[in-house]
């Protein structure tokens, strides 16, 4: 496995994880605003 392939894989993983993290932070913000 070359370093270029590893960089491509890392980018793919990041793109797949970003929407999940975004959704989690959005849910957390909504929950905090409803509690407060």
How are the elements arranged and paired?
Blueprint: H1 3-35
Q: How would you sum up the global shape?
A: rod-shaped
As residue ranges, the low-confidence spans are none
Strand content: under 5%
**What Rg, in angstroms, do the CA atoms define?**
16 Å
What series of H and E elements makes up the topology?
A: H
Structural class: mainly alpha
Tally of extended strands? 0
Structure characterization notes:
The protein has one domain (1-36). 92% of the residues lie in helices and 0% in strands. The protein has one helix and no strands. It has one helix at residues 3-35. The longest helix is centred in the middle third of the chain and has 33 residues, at 3-35.
In short:
The protein is an all-alpha fold.
What key phrases describe this protein's structure?
rod-shaped
